[in-house]
Amino acid sequence: MVTMDTLVSLCKRRGFVFQSSEIYGGTGSCWDYGPLGVELKNKIKRAWWRDFVQRRPDMVGLDASILMHSMVWKASGHVDHFADPMVDCRECRHRFRADQLAETPWVHYCPATKGNKFTIPPGEACTHCGASRTLCPDCGKGELTPPRQFNLMFKTFMGPVEEDASVTYLRPETAQGIFVNFDNVLQSMRRKLPFGIGQIGKAFRNEITPGNFIFRTREFEQMEIEYFVNPHETVEGRPADEYWHDRWIEDSLAWFRRYGIQPDNLRLHEHDRDELAHYAKRTADVQYRFPIGWSELMGIANRTDFDLKQHAKFSGKALTYFDEERKEHVVPYVIEPSAGVDRALLAFLADAYREEEVRGEKRVVLRFHPELAPLSVAVLPLLKKRDDIVRTAHAIRDDLARHLTAVYDDTAAIGRLYRRQDEVGTPYCVTVDVQTVGDTDKGEAADGKVTIRDRDSMEQIRVEGSRLGQVIGDLLGGASWAEVTAAVGRS
Ligand SMILES: [Zn+2]
Ligand SMILES: [Zn+2]
Question: What is the pTM of this model?
Fold first, then answer.
């Protein structure tokens, strides 16, 4: 398994992810997606949107605003309950989550060894004097304050006056934008239960201890679905909400596998009663084996009718569905598959990373699924001194770039150019050589063919330039290298 340090360094070196405001020393837990990172992120979001919103007849999309009426957060419970217990050091002023102190290594000045300084592993006692941690784990000297609740929402003011009446929050989740639009979507789109609303967007949480690169950040992006079902219906002999919960768990796992995540690196974690949010009937997390260990990649919760009922209560508007068959108004139950874009990106990146040995040399390769790779194709001239080769390569790139992410590169010898593309996961390279354009001095005619090189097998085939777009399209559309090679050989 690749380490986080290796990924962070690759991401910076090759333009995937940079630390935010780096020239000013960086900010805590904010990251910027560079030229390749933004392509990867967009492709992940596009695949998710296409598979879960566009392709499904029971789904529609939404893009709600980040700033909402402050009552939304009162109704959702975030104003009163979205908090972590926090303690402060009275000496060094460092802040900790009270529930994470036992997982933090602590500094200790040991009285049994004339006050020597030790750093003791999380939860362990000093082997010299037997003391366990009571003071600040960072400075080892300060007393800690009693825990108090720290709300994780970013507070701000709407309009020019900073007064209590204008207080609002940056949304801590995209879900509430869907709940408050439930009736708008129901009426305007004439939906019948079950149906879902999908949304991709930014959310913000003022985490006390963010960290682990893009795993936990204060600003992040979510891909969320609220799937509304009739709790009075049964499907295959089971309550509809339980049936659809299982279906969404299966579909979510299948989606990550479809885009190349190795099945062994995925597992399901069922929340037990202590972990379960107060409104949830059942929650299952899809966990991924990140470089930091098994951690949540996405959650799939049965939120029951909690949110719609809360918003109905606080807004005074009925948020119900009329069941024609039973002639009754029902408040739908909600199944919520909620994934983090940044975590998904980290999982795809970690899963794709390989170090291989090729002819005695190390090759770093990102084996991205072809649909997710930031660059689909790199067009490389074999000789950059030949104008006709360079011109042809540019023309091929321009043509491919109408539909794909395609780059031209001539800044090194061909072997090095291939390695660079391997390292950013480009599935196919196209090279233009002397045979492609011919050599009039030597009386050699142009054959008009170009070479396609496969990232994973490093095999190469020559195809007619006129067929290149089609062949690349087939490969990116799911045809295997073997199938395409066989088809090119036959023609
Ligand atoms: Zn301290
Ligand atoms: Zn000690």
Answer: 0.90
